[in-house]
Amino acid sequence: MTHSAVIDRRYKDALTRMTELLALVSALLYGSADFFGGLTARRANTIATVLVSQFVGLVLVLLALPFLPAATVSSSDWIWGIVAGLSGGIGVAFLYRALAVGKMAVVAPITAVCAAMIPVFFGFALGERFRPLTIAGIALAFVAIALVSQPRESKDEGGQRSARRSFPPGVSLALLAGVTVGLFFLSLARTNHAAGMWPLIAARITSVMLFGLIAVATGRTVRMSASATTTATAGGVLDMLANALYMLAARVGPLSIVVTLASLYPAATVILARLVLGERLSFMQGIGIGCALGAVVIIVGTTG
Length: 304
Fold this sequence. Notes:
Elements: H1 3-41, H2 46-64, H3 75-101, H4 104-125, H5 132-148, E1 152-155, E2 161-166, H6 171-189, H7 198-218, H8 226-252, H9 255-262, H10 266-277, H11 283-303
Antiparallel strand pairs: 1-2
Helix pairs in contact: 1-3, 1-8, 1-9, 1-10, 2-3, 2-7, 2-8, 3-4, 3-6, 3-7, 4-5, 4-6, 4-10, 4-11, 5-11, 8-9, 9-11
């Protein structure tokens, strides 16, 4: 092997390691942002939580705009950015509410597997055919949802177990969040790389305007306590930093690796929920979380 070939090989290896590191850090930040968003939604109303966190992210990316490379934005990029803002804003609202009323360790994996399946089903509707491994990943996702959302036994007034069983709180909202968040990622994927961060900026402006109008129309206050404002701000900053690292990783390394590693973000939410909130799960729910993470890796890895 020649000296130049050795240098080229080392460069590619270093680039791969950097890509993997950026993607893993983005996953950590995404999962942490979801945790802080859910924590805020337990202290304030969902509309205020979404509005503040989305506004903080918008301010952050606007401040960074002068340092970003020039971009060429087409009309379709603006349209898909607006669609992403509508679907993403609604998806985040569903997600934060689900994280507020249910166990975060249950909600996060369900949302992730549903979001991962949306682009797959969209491609199928356009005529694409599933690979055998993709089908296996989708099947594992349904198994994960069934295990994570195991019905729980209710108790009567005397503390005795009742025969009536109910699903854990937040499961239905998590399913809705997964579908709408999946539409958000699908919309951003339809934009051109030359557009840079502008579709994401359009998405954030749209979501901020949407929830600002909802707050005015419903008369809901956007005032929050100091602690809720702090966690909402932290969530907004972490989410935007995660977006920036994800986009950077996607532009320097293989997209399949980036998407697969970034899709592990529910693990951060689950770990934080266990360490900070002391959430406990049943054995079967723990198996379901493992299945969910595995399903996400398989699905995005075979369609990236």
